[in-house]
Structures are given as structure tokens and as C-alpha cells.
Design brief:
heterodimer, A: alpha/beta, 7 helices, globular, B: mainly alpha, 2 strands, about 50% helix
Chain lengths: ~240, ~100
């Protein structure tokens, strides 16, 4: 257990309505966690230990109120997984409108920033916790059409490393998982040809599973991993 | 509303709590002139963040409403020169809890 004085560790996950966040939430609910999740819409998760809130993570005040609500209900937060993000375009930079760029900046960067900030504050007072953010293999591939997306994911890595330094004295670790290709709602819209081409660029030429991502989350969140901080694990690997 | 004296009392409670947890070694008596941030402060950077986070919760608990301490909104606080006194912070708390 992450925290001996509680029966159930509390994990906060963003973006739980679908994709990676949905999969992570279900995995940890099945493994005895109490999960507080959020998304812009309603949730399909009906587990008794799941608490859902409709939150736009790019809205600072909504995030503040949500995290306060979680703390009031659960007392503290043990693990944060920031998986909310958008992947809604593969337009080349020359064709990317400002509004699209802004949507990546708002959700992927500002959203992760606000949630990390508010949860870190509660962890600082508890002097314990684990924060995990989600980057992407795209930051290593430099793939055409991902300038806005990859830039936002690189920013997440950098902000996580800075936060790791800031909160390290308080027994809080902050790490990044950069998954390679996964089967999610977002990637299922890729053409077969594009998916195959992406996999060919990876060292491990298959899609990563939710269970494999959760294996790394469990490693980072384990009390024995408190000295592991500011690290990035690239799944699938690109050399 | 949290009046200035009450806000200073909440700050003292935060400081006492941090002292009990070992984050602050010396005995600090908070007054309006106490430097919270900047030259002469008894807090290091992490201590300052912890202090503000703790105080934010105390202010919310006291009023029964969610309140957020936004440093850039504090009159007399200058994030570039990094200086904040307990008095300025107390005045800000009084203002946001009206």
C-alpha cells in the first residue's frame, strides 16, 4: 500500500472518459485504489470506488475546485496521473491555425500545469506523493504534422522535471511516461498505413498496452521509488 | 470576513504547524512587519510554497468557502522583486474574504 494509515490509496487521473485515462482508471480500480477522475463529459465508469467530476482541465478555477473537492472527500491524494490531452490534428505547421495550436497549449500544457500545481500543494502538506505525467513518443520521432502536439508534450516533460526538483525535499516524486503507439480512440482514427509506418519507427514494433503503462505507473508510485524523480520512460523506444 | 488580526493569527497557526513538522527551526512570532517573502524572510522557497498552501486551506476552512491566494493579485507584492510582508498578505486576505 502507498500509505499505511489508509485502507485504500487515492489516485487522481485526468481524462478518464476514454483512451489511456479510462484504461488506467479501470486498472487501478480493479487493483484496490480509490480513483478520482475527470473529463469534460460524463464517465462510463460505474465502479463504487470511482468518483467522477466533469472538469475542463484548461479552466484554472474548475481544477482548483475539483482538487479541493477530492481532498475534502478523501483526506489526501497519493498518486496523480495527468493523462488528459488532445491529439486532434496532424496538420503540417504551415496549415495549422492558431486556434488549433491554442487547443494543444490549453489542454496539454495549461491543463497539466494546473492539475499538477493543485495536487502538488496537497502533497506538500502531506509530505508525500507521486506525480506522473504523460508525454509521447512523438517528441522523439519529430513526425511531420505534429509540431503543435509534440511541442506541447515536450513542454510537459520539462515542467515535470522542474516540478520534480521543486518538490523533491518533500518526498514527492514526479516522472514522465512517454508511450509509443497505443490503441486508443485517438489513434484508432489513424489510417492503417500511417499506423504501420509509425510502428516501423519504433524499436518494439507493436502497440503498447494499458497494462504496460500501468506497470510503469506502479513503479513510479511505489514508496520504494521515491528516489526516482525527474525521469522519462520512453516506451517502445526510438533510438 | 477575515479581519487583518485574524489573518495574522491564521498565519501564526501555519507557522506553528510548520515548526512542529520541522520545516522551521526557530520560533517565529508573526506580526504585520514579518517578512514572508524576500530578504529577511524566515522561509526558504519550498517553505514559502508550503506556507501559502497551508494558509489557503486555513482561510477556506475558517470561512467555509473556497478561497485562493493569488500572489500576483496582492497589492504591494511584487513577484519580480520577490517581497511580501505578513501585513500585506493579511490585508489581501481581508479583501478576498469580504
Amino acid at each position: 500500500m502507498l500509505d499505511d494509515h489508509k485502507q485504500q490509496p487515492v489516485m487522481v487521473i485526468t481524462g478518464t472518459s476514454k483512451g489511456l485515462g479510462y484504461g488506467i482508471a479501470n486498472y487501478y480500480l480493479f487493483n484496490g485504489f480509490c480513483v478520482a477522475g475527470c473529463s469534460r463529459g460524463v464517465s462510463a465508469i460505474t465502479h463504487e470506488n470511482y468518483q467522477h467530476a466533469q472538469v475542463d482541465v484548461s479552466d484554472e478555477r474548475q481544477v482548483q475546485e475539483w482538487v479541493r473537492q477530492i481532498k475534502r472527500k478523501n483526506g489526501s491524494i497519493d498518486v496523480l496521473v495527468c493523462s488528459a490531452g488532445v491529439l486532434n490534428s496532424f496538420l503540417h505547421m504551415a496549415l495549422t491555425p492558431g486556434s488549433l495550436l491554442q487547443s494543444f497549449l490549453n489542454t496539454n500544457i495549461a491543463g497539466t500545469f494546473y492539475v499538477c500545481r493543485e495536487v502538488a500543494k496537497t502533497m506538500l502538506l502531506k509530505r508525500s506523493g507521486s506525480i506522473i505525467t504523460i508525454s509521447s513518443i512523438m517528441t522523439q520521432l519529430h513526425e511531420q504534422g505534429t509540431s503543435a502536439y509534440s511541442a506541447s508534450k515536450s513542454a510537459i516533460t520539462e515542467m515535470t522535471k522542474v516540478l520534480a526538483k521543486e518538490v523533491a525535499p518533500m518526498n514527492i516524486n514526479c516522472n514522465v511516461i512517454a508511450p509509443s503507439f497505443m490503441h486508443t480512440d485517438a489513434t484508432d482514427s489513424f489510417s492503417d498505413q500511417y499506423s504501420v509506418a509509425l510502428l516501423e519507427k519504433q524499436t518494439i514494433k507493436r502497440a503498447v498496452t494499458i497494462e504496460e503503462v500501468c506497470n510503469i505507473i506502479s513503479f513510479f508510485a511505489a514508496p520504494e521509488s521515491r528516489c526516482v524523480t525527474g525521469q522519462v520512460i520512453h516506451m517502445g523506444l526510438v533510438c | 470576513m477575515i479581519a487583518i488580526n485574524k489573518a495574522l493569527k491564521l498565519m501564526q497557526d501555519s507557522v506553528n504547524s510548520m515548526q512542529r513538522s520541522g520545516m522551521i527551526k526557530e520560533l517565529i512570532v508573526v506580526s504585520s512587519d514579518t517578512v514572508i517573502l524576500g530578504k529577511g524572510s524566515f522561509l526558504d522557497s519550498l517553505g514559502f510554497v508550503t506556507f501559502i498552501s497551508d494558509l489557503e486551506e486555513r482561510v477556506s476552512a475558517d470561512t467555509g468557502k473556497d478561497h485562493y491566494l493569488i500572489l500576483t493579485d496582492i497589492q504591494d507584492a511584487n513577484s519580480y522583486q520577490a517581497f511580501l510582508s505578513a501585513g500585506a498578505l493579511a490585508a489581501y486576505i481581508e479583501k478576498i474574504t469580504v
